[in-house]
Amino acid sequence: MDWLDWHDAYHRPDSSLSQRLRAVQAQIRRTLDGAPAGPVRVLSVCAGQGHDLLEVLADHPRRGDVKARLVELDARNTAMAAAAAAGLDVEVITGDASLTDHYRGLAPADLVLMCGVFGNITLPDIERTVDACRRLAATGGTVIWTRGRTAPDRVPQICEWFEAKEFDRAWVSEPDVDYGVGVHRYRGEPLPLEENTSMFRFVGFAELQAAGLT
């Protein structure tokens, strides 16, 4: 998979990816609208070109309060994200987004974006990453995540994993579209961020599907 070309679907308004982006952006706006006064810390895991967060911050009244870190492996995508982030307090890191060390200093965050992650890793790694969100999110912090809803639909299971880890369901997209967007809010106390730990192994949806691991 060429992860630069993958982003082309964002520019087609009728594509599933474009529709998912709009749903994620609506939830980011809602989260920022409801955030208490003061700084808002944001982490984006497997951030790609940062369309979800950066397009919202472009005109959001809380843009000056946001301090964000985007982590993405593909340097072509991070270059585009960095250009779009000009003038914002946004750090763009080119590196393995699974590594906890990339989030040190900003975790626990008020908003954690796990978009484009759960469809590309194994089910055991999804569960491990949900657990790791207790180290990335602050008390009262929001995690926005995505996962395709084509069969087998794993969205209900992911919701159960979050809710077993002291996350409250704030919103989940309807099951009548082929993409899923979930929003969970952490009511627990954040756990210490483990050093030099990988939360998951990014496999890729096509490879998982071919191996029967979706």
UniProtKB/TrEMBL annotation:
One of its GO terms (molecular function) is methyltransferase activity. Residues 42-141 form the Methyltransferase domain. Keywords: Methyltransferase, Transferase. GO terms for biological process: methylation. The keyword Methyltransferase applies. The keyword Secreted does not apply. This is Methyltransferase family protein. It comes from Kutzneria buriramensis.
